[in-house]
Structure formats: structure tokens, C-alpha cells
Amino acid sequence: MVPYDNGSPPTDRPGLRRRALLTGAAALAAAGAIGASSGCSRVATADTGDGGRLLEQLRARGSVRLGIAGEQPYGYIGKDGKVTGSAPAIATRIFKRLGVDRVEPFPTEFGSLIFGLNSLQFDVVAAGMYINPDRCQQVLFADPEYRMKDAFIVAKGNPMKLRDYKDIARTGARMATGIGYAEIDYAKAAGVKRITTLPDQLAGLLAVEQGRVDVFAGTAVTVRNVLEQTRSTKAEATDEVTPYVDGKPVVDVGGFAFRRPERNLRDAFNRELHKMKRSGELLQIMRPFGFSEDQMTTLTAEEKCRA
User: Fold this and answer.
1) Which of 81, 150, 227, 246 could form a disulfide with 241 if both were Cys (CB 3.0 to 4.6 A apart)?
2) pLDDT at res. 35
3) Residue 266: which of 5, 64, 85 has the closest Cα?
């Protein structure tokens, strides 16, 4: 089983290295693949119209497989080789209350999460995935646990004065972001022409530090965390950035994703999530990973799916 540290963020934050992260991710992915072929039975999901029976099957199995994407602070591998992040921490708490004692993280690339979920490689996407109408056609979302704006990683002093996506377009700056990230569409909507995709925010930080790109765009909490953990002296984070699409401001929200037939599991998850929101427990879990009270939200998945 993939090691998991109960959801607490690593205390040895300085000195995080990309090589260690990728090595750990590769090892965990290999372990997941071995498990899938040698003992982790895949549960077929047919849309019978009864809301699905995956929760019953997970209880019988005693574990749930979480698809994560190695992105801080949502779900990633710490220096100790254990999986941590806000989403695994939330999942551990909720599934325990639903009668499923173990969570087994399954690392993959962000752009492969929905495919992996629907091809039964894992049971739930636990990666802080943004909820939007296109994705709602492919998966079933729980209500979001957070709302988020963007931020940029730029060279120290922000020499190109990049404060929003229009600045990137106006200056012709070389922009990078993650594979499958919503920031790609936000940049294109602002007229950005030069967009490179990189594996993660650590790769983005290195690209900015080495001068290979001028700016890396990501979620505000992700950008702040990677700079804090690496203590970079060559790069900095901008203030929060509000993306615009068709002239309208966008504030994204993220949540857990389930296969579309599994409404019963999603609804049971939602009930526990709402209890945690009302009691303040959700913020208590997420705060150590860099989230604030301002980023909590009462928006529903339904609202974002029809936006």
C-alpha cells in the first residue's frame, strides 16, 4: 500500500527538491500499477440508474483509491516519501466516517485524472480539481471545499511588471503552466500566444529561475507554497490574479470527482463535507496546507456546472 502520513503537511519544508519528488512519484506510480495487476480488483461501474453501489464495495474492501496529481498543496509526495496534501487529508477523515478505513493514493499526471477515474484505475479524484461545465460532462463532482484565484511565479523584482494575463499578452512574455491547468484557457482568453506546459509548479519555478520562461501561472496557494518551501532567492510570487473570460471575472472552486453513475457515494461524501464546513473542521484540516478562511466557499457543484 502507498505510504500515507495521515494528512499533516511535512514539517521539514525547506530544501524540497524536484528530483526527490519525481523519483517518489515514479515509485508510487509503479507500486500502484503493480497493485492494479496483482491484487487490487477494479470495480465495474454500470449506470443502472440506482445511484451506484461503489460505497458498499469500498466498505467491503476496506479501502478507497485516490487519484492525485503531485501538485502542492492538494495532493503530493513529501520529502519523507509519504503522500500528503489537503485532499488526501480531507478524504481520510470523510471516508473513515463512511466506514472505509484506508485511503490508497494513486499518483498520475493531472491531465490523466479523469481518464484514470473513468477507466477504473482509482475510485475518486482527490486533487483539488476545478469544477467547470466541460468536466461536469465527464465526472460527478462533490461540492467544492475551496475557492481560488491565480498567481504568477516571476523573476525577483518582477522586471516585466506582470500583474495579470493581459500584461503577459501585452509584453509577449514567455508563459508556462501545468499540463491540463485551467490557466491555459485564461491566458488564451487574454491573448497570450506563447504558452509552454510543464509537469508541475517545481518545474515552473526552475524554468523561471533559469530564464527559460518569464512567468509560471498557477493557483495562488500553489505558487505561494512552492516559493515558501524552496526559499527561492531568484523568483517571487505576484499578488493574486483574477482571470477574465468573455469579459467576466472568474473565481474557481475545486472539489472531489466521482464516476457519473456513483451518485450515492458522492451524496454520502457531500453530507460529511457539509458537516465539516458548518463546524469549521474543514478549515482546520486545510489551514496547515496554506488555505485561509477567505478561500472557504458555500458554492455548490451544481452552480459551477451550469456556469
Assistant:
1) 150
2) 38
3) 64
